[in-house]
């Protein structure tokens, strides 16, 4: 886990520039830094290192290939690097590896097999920049599901890329202007989906994609390629479904998860795991404990509010599994103390309030380990969210109405002039939805008819269309042949919500304390097998979700120890925003909105949202999105150039 950055220019102070950029993300790599410059093209590659595998200088970056043709700066881990290393040595007995790092294996694999064939061999999380000195081409590549971030764009005609927008604070000539379309998407989702970033002219490389740009590194030199597709994985799974029994499917999934965890335990620094009272992380810890020769270190934070606390259940599971367990009960004061730091930690507007406990549990884990495994992706791959069956049932009811009535009712209730409240808006979404996944997006994201209209996007104030060179990227495969509605909802979440919310939260929270987070359920073989599993093995008509995961987990943890309603990792937003100092901060922020003053938010709509919240104390999530956007904007406008 590291931070990378680079640019192309012929400035005399390029060395100073790259060092300043790397300093801005020292938390992503506190163990060292390096940079390299190609004198012919002016390309600069920079790296901040968090040492995980091969702690010696043999693992330092940027790294040159054995033949000197390729140079790489890379963030992430290749979990099957030992196997690829052996394959390379069998093919090229004369190849000499200087160290044991996965970076060197990745670099030599690119040179030996070619970029896409090498990527097809790799299992891991990564964002990398590879320079071919012979062809004078730079290739940016991001892992299959988007665990590691990678931004890119042009500043004054100069190509730049980086792991964290913080580095642009010191890039000469960069003007931090908020992208209005990205801000509108943020107010819809609570996160900014790729390829957008919050800044005009800066974009995120989408998961499973690579970008190649050739010297002299102009916009019209960019080429895109998608080397792996979630849509194709789903389609292949449907074409080749698993035909064994439910028990046999569980056996196979357990094998795949075990192998994924075995690879992710490879490290030269201490490794632990997050542990909740749910299903996913206890399953990961159970399999870790099965593999490990020593007790696994596990970490949980507890809350004073019993409504949100699972710590006692996690502790019970830890005792049963005999892990070396560390738990910390945090006060509400400690939770609230994190809020002023959120824009610094996440560096873009981000409004998943579980960001706060995720940061705190990462900080706790970092006190004893440098790597932590989590149970993320279990909900999206194996039907864990309560919304899936509820929305499927709701969709079934609305479809019984005549089509003309649904269209008419949806149109009337969805009109801007209708002031019957948010319930009417939700009903309108239900009536208009043509598919279960459309209804899922409407209910989960279009949570407020006013919020959709908050961001001003008229012709005079709009930032402009996405550039042509980005439009030509391969279109996301939204459509799929997944036959069941809940399956399509899960699939869509894997394309957007998971990479742009969950994985952003996990990466930024961990990196803020220099902790590497690993996600075994995102192993390529696990993901692809998940789409082969029959839907009835994931959930049934009795409302049992994550059936196959529970089947495996019950082999290690008694069912009665886990038989409880799902709580999630949430905080009492509604209470925070209606009482105490946080409520005062919210009122002050909204009443003196900088985004409204600068023409991004419609002040009348903002006033209506605030007035309604004061009246009924509902829809705290919408207010949280506004507050997180305001906090980010204040930091950007006040201190961007102060460093």
Structure keywords:
643 residues; alpha+beta; six-stranded antiparallel beta sheet; 27 helices; 42% helix; globular
End-to-end CA span: 24 Å
Mean pLDDT: 89
Q: Give the number of DSSP strands.
A: 17
Q: Which percent bin holds the helix content?
A: 40-55%
Structural class by secondary-structure content:
alpha+beta
Characterize the largest beta sheet: strand count, sense, and whether it forms a barrel: 6 strands, antiparallel
Number of helices: 27
Strand sequence of the main sheet, in spatial order? 2-3-1-9-8-10
Shape by Cα distribution:
globular
Uncertain parts: 416-421, 472-478
Compose a concise summary of this entry:
The chain is built from 27 helices and 17 strands. The two termini are 24 Å apart.
What features would you describe in this structure?
It is built from 27 helices and 17 strands. By secondary structure, it is α+β, with helices and mostly antiparallel strands. The strands form 3 sheets. The chain has a 6-stranded antiparallel β-sheet, with helices on one face. A 6-stranded antiparallel β-sheet has the order 4-5-6-7-11-12, covered by helices on one side. A 5-stranded parallel β-sheet has the order 15-14-13-16-17, sandwiched between helices.
């Amino acid at each position: 886990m590291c931070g990378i950055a680079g640019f192309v220019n012929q400035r005399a102070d390029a060395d100073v520039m790259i060092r300043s950029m790397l300093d801005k993300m020292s938390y992503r790599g506190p163990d060292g830094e390096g940079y390299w410059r190609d004198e012919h093209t002016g390309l600069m590659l920079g790296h901040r290192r968090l040492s995980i595998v091969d702690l010696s200088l043999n693992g330092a970056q940027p790294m040159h290939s054995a033949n000197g043709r390729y140079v790489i700066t890379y963030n992430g881990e290749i979990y099957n690097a030992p196997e690829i290393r052996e394959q390379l040595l069998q093919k090229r007995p004369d190849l000499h590896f200087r160290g044991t790092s996965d970076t060197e294996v990745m670099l030599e694999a690119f040179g030996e097999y070619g970029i896409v064939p090498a990527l097809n061999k790799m299992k891991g999380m990564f964002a990398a920049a590879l320079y071919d000195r012979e062809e004078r081409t730079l290739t940016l590549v991001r892992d299959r599901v988007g665990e590691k971030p990678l931004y890119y764009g042009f500043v004054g005609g100069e190509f730049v890329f980086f792991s964290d927008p913080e580095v642009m604070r010191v890039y000469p000539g960069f003007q931090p202007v908020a992208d209005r379309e990205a801000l509108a998407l943020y107010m819809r989702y609570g996160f900014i989906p790729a390829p957008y970033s919050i800044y005009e002219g800066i974009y995120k490389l989408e998961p499973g994609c690579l970008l190649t740009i050739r010297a002299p590194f102009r916009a019209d030199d960019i080429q895109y390629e998608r080397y792996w597709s979630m849509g194709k994985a789903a389609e292949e799974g449907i074409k080749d479904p698993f035909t064994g029994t439910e028990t046999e499917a569980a056996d196979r999934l357990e094998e795949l998860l075990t192998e994924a965890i075995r690879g992710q335990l490879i490290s030269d620094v201490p490794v632990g795991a997050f542990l909740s009272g749910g299903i996913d992380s206890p399953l990961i810890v159970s399999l870790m404990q099965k593999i490990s020769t020593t007790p696994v270190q596990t970490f949980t934070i507890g809350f004073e509010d019993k409504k949100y606390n699972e710590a006692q259940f996690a502790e019970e599971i830890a005792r049963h599994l005999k892990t070396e367990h560390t738990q910390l009960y945090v006060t509400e004061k400690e939770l609230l103390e994190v809020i002023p730091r959120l824009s610094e930690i996440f560096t873009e507007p981000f409004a998943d309030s579980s960001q706060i406990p995720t940061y705190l549990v990462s900080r706790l884990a970092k006190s004893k380990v440098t790597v932590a495994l989590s149970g993320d992706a279990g909900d999206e791959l194996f039907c864990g969210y309560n919304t899936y069956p509820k929305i499927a049932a709701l969709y079934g009811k609305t479809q019984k109405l005549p089509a003309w009535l649904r269209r008419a009712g949806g149109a009337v209730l969805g009109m801007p002039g209708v002031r019957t409240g948010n319930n009417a808006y939700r009903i309108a979404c239900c009536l208009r939805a043509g598919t279960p996944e459309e209804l899922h997006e409407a209910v989960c994201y279009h949570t407020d008819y006013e919020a959709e209209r908050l961001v001003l996007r008229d012709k005079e104030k709009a930032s402009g269309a996405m550039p042509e060179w980005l439009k030509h990227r391969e279109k996301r495969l939204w459509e799929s042949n997944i036959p069941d509605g809940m399956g399509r909802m899960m699939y869509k979440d894997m394309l957007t919500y998971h990479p742009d919310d969950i994985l952003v939260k996990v990466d930024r929270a961990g990196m803020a304390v220099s902790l590497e987070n690993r996600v075994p359920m995102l192993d390529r073989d696990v993901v692809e097998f998940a789409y082969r599993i029959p839907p009835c093995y994931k959930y049934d008509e009795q409302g049992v979700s994550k059936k196959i995961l529970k089947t495996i987990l019950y082999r290690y943890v008694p069912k009665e120890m886990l038989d409880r309603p799902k709580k999630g990792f949430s905080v009492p937003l509604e209470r925070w925003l209606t009482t105490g100092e946080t409520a005062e901060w919210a009122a002050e922020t909204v009443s003196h909105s900088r985004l409204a003053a600068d023409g991004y938010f419609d002040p009348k709509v903002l006033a209506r949202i605030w007035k309604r919240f004061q009246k009924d104390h509902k829809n705290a999530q919408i207010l949280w999105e506004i507050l997180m956007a305001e906090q980010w904007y204040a930091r950007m406008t006040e201190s961007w150039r102060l460093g």
